[in-house]
Amino acid sequence: MHFKANVHAKLADVVLQGNLKNAKGKFVTRRAEAIKDLDDFEATRDAAAAIRNKVIDNLDLWLECFERKALDTGAQVLWAKDGVEVCRLVIEIAKKHGVTKVTKSKSMLSEEAGLNQALEAAGIQPVETDLGEYILQVDNNEPPSHIIAPAVHKSLDEVADLFHKVHGTPRKTDIPALTREAREVLRAHFLTAEMGLSGGNFLVAETGSVALVTNEGNGRMVTTMPKVHVVITGIEKVIPTLEDLSTLMRLLPRSATGQSISNYFSILTGVKKPEEHDGPEHLYFVLVDSGRADVVGGDFHEMLRCIRCGACMNHCPVYQTIGGHAYGWVYPGPMGSVLTPLYAGIENSIDLPHAATLCNQCGIVCPVKIPLPDLLRKLREKQTERGLRPLTERIGLRLWAWVAQRPKLYALGARVGARYLKWLAGDTDRIRLLPTAPEWTLGRDFPAPQGKTFRELYAARRSSTPRA
Amino acid sequence: MSSRDDILGRVRAGLHRNASNAAVAREEMLAALTNRSQGPKPGIDAEPKALLERFRLKSEQQSSTVDIVAQESDVPAAVARYLAAMNLPKSAVAWPSLARLDWAAAGLQVEGRGARDADLVGITGCFCAVAETGTLMVCSSPDTPATVSLLPETHIAVVHASRILAYMEDAWAVARKELGALPRAVNFISGPSRTGDIEQTIVLGAHGPYRVHLVIVSD
């Protein structure tokens, strides 16, 4: 993953920068409005965090409880250690039921697993049905840049060009007309796919159900029309009761899109009864580890509370500036900068824990109170402990430590440094280009020191103030 | 080793699971499942008139339209009025449970069955409704197929005022009492389907209905 190179490319991408500017703040304003209906937002956040803790602190037992209940309803429960196993299991299920086409509602885990590519290789057609995901799929399988609004980086003009090219219809820039065009294309797929595939926002242990939060209705389509429904979710998604579900639902849509409730909220339990008109005859849960089990009980345990609302990225100054693709994997923004190192390897994502100003906007808005800046800091510590930081940085820090242990030398260094920076600033109070760290001043100025060091000022003040 | 054993084994190792902490945790789990404690809820006036008013207001905020009639036998005429006003076809698919209403008298052709792609208007009831957010709770069954509120471009729902509850938690309590186990699909519906995936501009009618009209029977 080449985060720094990505960032440079994204900052230089004029179209993307325009789109990001256009999107900026919309989710933030809507969320701020929506949380006003809750009399006690903080107490609701505390309750939600407690619900998530209750489960992840005893995840083994809750998983067994969910599994038992789900089996009782007639569902089948499968377990996958990694993305490869997810793909293998889904393809096996598809082959068993003679499936040639799969309609998908949004599943970030299937992105983690690279499921679409695996399905295609097995001769099974995957069709993304969330409008944003569909736009990306027909645009050469571009990856999503946001977990809630996958195509947020695309402009109306880009979508208009794309649909004109892919659907062979006259180019249109009316958003409702474009939406209708996608609806008509996808309706045909909903009616003919033999298998529907969804993620799961929550798994309810009490009833063995999956809960799906959607607005478009595609989640309902893929879980109602095909004869097979496969749910792919992380093992951490279990919650105890339907009451807990209600508490979390007061926070998830508000934090995600600023809605008091999503348009559709579906709680699906078991399979179609023989006398019913609709619903799948077969229901499979694929419970996925992919790095989660090893996070349990460790330094990053709290990250497992995450309910994937996206509020952290919506409020992140870094995400707002570079967009989601720069992060290089499925999950962007602050939650991604924690999850990617944990699931894809600390050594494979060296820059991500540093892609943050630690301003704690993310921590403040997180509906389940995950201390994201603390976790990012802990990841930085892990990198240092494991000697993963770049050589120049390690030498530099060692050099600094050596000097810092020699007060006279340190004072001299600080004096020279302060004078040098003052000289650089000239008669202004800021430095436009730092020759020693030009990257730092690429997008901002460096405040110039006044010319004297703290110790010099302190000494001067002491000598001029008479002692009491 | 199966993936299940491997995954659960590593989760147990992370939690330092042993027989004594497992016993304590099982007790806690059982208590959580029995007590079903509720989180903080926004204050709502639970007086029936206030509930109806809040439900209507919140439904309208979700882009549904609302009509109120005095008794169930008035529903077909109200539906006919709405369809005429909106210039929509006079034929509809309805839940089999609603086929008993005298639709023909209101000049409507209504078939009680599951919906098909070609159906333009779908008429459903609801299990109950939630005033907090202006939400219908719709349960699937042979008499109440899920497709009727999903496939047609127009969804009309009949809501009995006595079934408007304050919170989703209240709806779960009623479901446990009246249904026992959950039906295959419980759908909470709050207005027409929508998307904001192109430039975060909200468009009604993504994959489900373009419009939702509620006929509340004030009983």
Any chance you could write out the topology, listing elements then pairs?
The complex is a heterodimer of chains A (468) and B (219).
Chain A: H1 3-12, H2 14-23, H3 26-34, H4 41-56, H5 59-72, E1 76-80, H6 83-96, E2 101-104, H7 108-113, H8 115-121, E3 125-128, H9 131-138, H10 156-167, H11 175-192, E4 195-198, E5 202-204, E6 209-214, H12 218-224, E7 228-234, E8 238-239, H13 242-257, E9 264-268, E10 282-288, H14 311-314, H15 317-322, H16 333-344, H17 361-365, H18 372-385, H19 391-404, H20 407-425, E11 430-431, E12 446-447, H21 454-464
Helix pairs in contact in A: 3-13, 4-13, 10-11, 16-18
Chain B: H1 3-14, H2 19-35, H3 48-61, E1 65-69, H4 75-85, E2 91-94, E3 109-112, E4 121-124, E5 128-130, E6 135-139, E7 154-160, E8 164-165, H5 168-179, E9 185-189, E10 194-195, E11 203-204, E12 211-217
Parallel strand pairs in B: 1-12, 2-3, 2-4, 4-7, 5-8, 7-12
Antiparallel strand pairs in B: 5-6, 6-9, 10-11
Protein architecture, described:
Chain A has helices at 3-12, 14-23, 26-34, 41-56, 59-72, 83-96, 108-113, 115-121, 131-138, 156-167, 175-192, 218-224, 242-257, 311-314, 317-322, 333-344, 361-365, 372-385, 391-404, 407-425, 454-464; strands at 76-80, 101-104, 125-128, 195-198, 202-204, 209-214, 228-234, 238-239, 264-268, 282-288, 430-431, 446-447. By secondary structure, chain A is α/β, with parallel strands linked by helices. In chain A, helix 3 (26-34) crosses helix 13, helix 4 (41-56) crosses helix 13 (242-257) and helix 10 (156-167) crosses helix 11. The model of chain A has no long low-confidence stretch (mean pLDDT 94). Chain A folds into 2 domains: 3-293, NagB/RpiA/CoA transferase-like (Rossmann fold), CATH 3.40.50.10420; 391-464, no CATH class. In chain A, strand 5 and strand 6 (209-214) form a beta hairpin. Chain B has 2 domains: 3-35; 48-217, NagB/RpiA/CoA transferase-like (Rossmann fold, 3-Layer(aba) Sandwich). Chain B has helices at 3-14, 19-35, 48-61, 75-85, 168-179; strands at 65-69, 91-94, 109-112, 121-124, 128-130, 135-139, 154-160, 164-165, 185-189, 194-195, 203-204, 211-217. In chain B, the strands form 3 sheets. In chain B, strands 1-12-7-4-2-3 form a 6-stranded parallel sheet, with helices on both faces. The longest helix of chain B is centred in the first third of the chain and has 17 residues, at 19-35. The radius of gyration of chain B is 22 Å and the shape is elongated. The chains are: A alpha/beta (468), B alpha/beta (219). The interface between A and B is large, with 103 and 74 residues. Strand 9 of chain A pairs antiparallel with strand 9 (185-189) of chain B.
